[in-house]
Each structure stands twice: as structure tokens, then as C-alpha cells.
Amino acid sequence: MNFSLVKNVLKYASGFCYRTKNVTSMCASSVITKGFHTTPSNSDLMEFFDIKKNWNETNIRVGRAWKLDELRIKSNVDLHKLWYILLKERNMLYTMEHECYEKVRLFPNPERIDKVQESMNNIETVIRERNIAYYKLETGETGERPVEDVVNMFGLPEKYKKQEYHIPQFMNSRWVRPYLEHGYINSLAVKKFYRLYKEKQYNETRRARNRNFNHVQHLLKRFPNMDLEKLKAEYPDVDIEKAKHTKKARGHFLPKY
Amino acid sequence: MSTRWYPIYQRGNPQLRVFLPNFWMKMVRPHPKQLPNIVHFQCSMEMTKYDIKNYLEKIYNIPVVDVRTKITLGRFRKDYGQGYIVKDDDVKYAYIVLPKDMTFKFPEIFDSKKNDEEENMKSLDEAKKNFSDYLEKNKDRTDVPSWFSI
């Protein structure tokens, strides 16, 4: 499935990552090409904590999150590395946040977590776009998880996200049983529920229609010189010509229409 | 995301690979006191012991001897004011055993006591100043409520 593309795309992406602190600020430096600076990677449990300089700070200034357009021009290998950098950064922020909570301190600049999360979401979006493009080229389909319209146990239409099963559908007696001729979904109880449900929905729309019609009549009564085009735009399903000539729309003035 | 949707594993299939893991782990202060080579974490509820071991070994390069996990039930508590019942989230804890020769001590991040005192006094002074300003501003209009002006 589409799983294999990501495998293709990321085949050359190795697992190692750079270690940088304040990752969000990196995007600023990526614009300036002259100095690309990373702190040497120290693989240690201390990676779960912020650098020592920031421990007692009350205000930690960082840059913005990675934008979609910046990520679109990166290679898959770069995105893969960046993902792990952001993942570590998020873990670090979670750890510091928890420690601050334990020690009854204010966690400085909590929006850092949101920035990292936004960057990670953007990376996922970009990878997904590439996945779809690849699949459309190779197979003519998007490669996304297929969605099917089904009738659920209450007889209502529902979107069902398809997934893999160990046995085919017709062999799954537990799944098939409610859909049989005398099964649950075709039973009187479900049909009655569906009828009443439709009736309720119909009544709601009917009341809304009447309410709007009455409201338009009263508006015409109170404001005879109103802009009728705007009124039409506000209440598109009301017949304004009809509403003009009703008894309710007549005010204490000579009828204009 | 499509990569979060894995095919079910059947014998003979290639091993599943995670390319963009979405798991989080955060280190917490060990409670109760533990041996020096044991580290406590909170982690994503979906992580298995194998996931935790691989996560630490592959991403953080930390040698892991053993992983133990437990899931603690979130507290049921009454909401302040409203009185309805609130259920806190369940938490998955992971106890990581490092090799015998490795030790880790949870660092003391906030240690400066003197600074605290100073900052408290500073904020107290600020509050006093704000209040005196407020009194000064509303000297001539005692009947105006405090929320009236900016």
C-alpha cells in the first residue's frame, strides 16, 4: 500500500540525527547560508533536559515554526532528520514542562511546544503530499486510506475508513449477520427509528422555514424601505414577493406594493 | 497520516518499520527513590516495551538492559465550582534499567533560593505600586467601578 512509498522515499534516510537546542530558531539561520551551526551530538540522558543556560531563565526566546513552503523544498532525507530533531525537542519540552509543574514554577514560553508541534504537522503534510503525488503517478490512485459509505447499526449513513482484516468480509459472520434479510439493520425497530428520525429532521427544517418567513414579514412591516437584495441574500429560501403581500407585512402606512 | 496506518502483520511479511515515529517520552523525577541505574519515564500510551527499548537505543543511543511499564489510572475528582466528576488521563510509566556501570541522577533544575525571595519581593512591590496608582487615578471618582477604565 502507500506504506511502501514512504519506505522508498526514506530509504536513504539514516537514523542518526543532529542535536540542536532551540530547534525552532534554526529556520532563521537556514536562510543565511554562510554559517550552518550545530552543537556536537551528545547522546545522553541529559538530552531530555534543556541546556544548562536556560534552566533558571524566565524568558526563552526562540524563532518561529517551520513553514510548509520551506519544508517543500527540502529533500526526504532532510525531512527525516528534521523530524527526529523536532521529536527530541518536543520530548525535552515535555520533560521541562513536567518538572516545572512538579516544582510549582511557571514553564517559560510554553508556545515552544506548539511551534514544534506545528513544524511536525507540516512535515507530515509535506510527506503526505509527496506520497499522493507518487501514487497518482504510479497507480492513478491517491494511495490514501479508502473511505466507503455504509449503513450503520441505526440505519444511518456513515463514512467507514477501510482497514485490513485477517478474513474476507463474507466469512466474517459477525459482520454479515446484521445485514441479512432478517438481520438487525432490516428489523422493524431500526426502520421505525429511521422513520421517526427523518420526521424529526423534517419538522426542524419546516419550523426553520416558517420562522424565517414570519421574520421576513415582520421586517418588511417595520422597515418598509429596506434593501430587498440584502434581505434576499440573508434569507435565500424565503419568497419575498409573497411575503410583501401578506397581512402580517402591512404596517400603519399606505401599502407600497 | 497515511504512514500511521500500518498493514496487519502476517507471518512471512516484511518487518514493519516506523519512519516518522510520533511517540513521546518524558523523563520524570523517580518516586520512590530508586537505584542509581534506574530512570523513570512517562510515555505514549501506545508504546510497548519493545518500542520503548528501540526508541531509547536508536534515537537517543542509550543502552537499555530492561524495561518495565505500568499504567496508572487517572484520578477521578470533582470539578471546582461546578461539582461534576472529571477523570484525569491515564499515564503510562516506563522504568528503564541502565547497565550496572551507568548511573544517572535527576538534575536539580531550580536551585536558587535567594533569587526566589528577590523576585517575590519585586512582584510584591509592583503590586503595591499598581494599587497606589489605581487609588491615585480614582481619587476624584470613587463611585466608578474598577473595571470601567483601561
Can I get a quick summary?
The complex is a heterodimer of chains A (257) and B (150). With 257 residues, chain A is mainly α. Chain A is 49% helix and 4% strand.
Question: Would you kindly provide a written description of the structure presented here, covering whatever features stand out?
Answer:
Chain A has helices spanning 3-9, 26-31, 68-72, 76-102, 111-139, 173-176, 188-222, 228-234, 240-244, and strands at 147-151, 157-161. Chain A has 257 residues and is mainly α. Chain A folds into three domains: 3-139, no CATH class; 147-179, no CATH class; 188-244, no CATH class. In chain A, helix 4 (76-102) runs antiparallel to helix 5 (111-139). The model of chain A is unreliable at 1-33 (pLDDT under 50). Chain B is an alpha+beta fold. Helices cover 24% and strands 20% of the residues of chain B. In chain B, the strands form two sheets. Chain B has a four-stranded antiparallel β-sheet, covered by helices on one side. Chain B has a two-stranded antiparallel sheet with strand order 4-5. The relative contact order of chain B is 0.13. The mean pLDDT of chain B is 89. Chain A binds chain B through residues 1-3, 6-7, 10, 13, 15, 17, 43-49, 55-56, 80, 83-84, 87-88, 90-91, 94-99, 102-103, 105, 120, 123-124, 127-128, 131, 143-145, 163-166, and chain B through 1-3, 5-8, 10, 17, 19-22, 24-29, 39, 42, 58-62, 104, 107, 109-112, 115. Chain B: It holds the Pfam family Ribosomal_L23. Chain B: InterPro entries: Nucleotide-bd_a/b_plait_sf, Ribosomal_uL23-like, Ribosomal_uL23/eL15/eS24_sf.
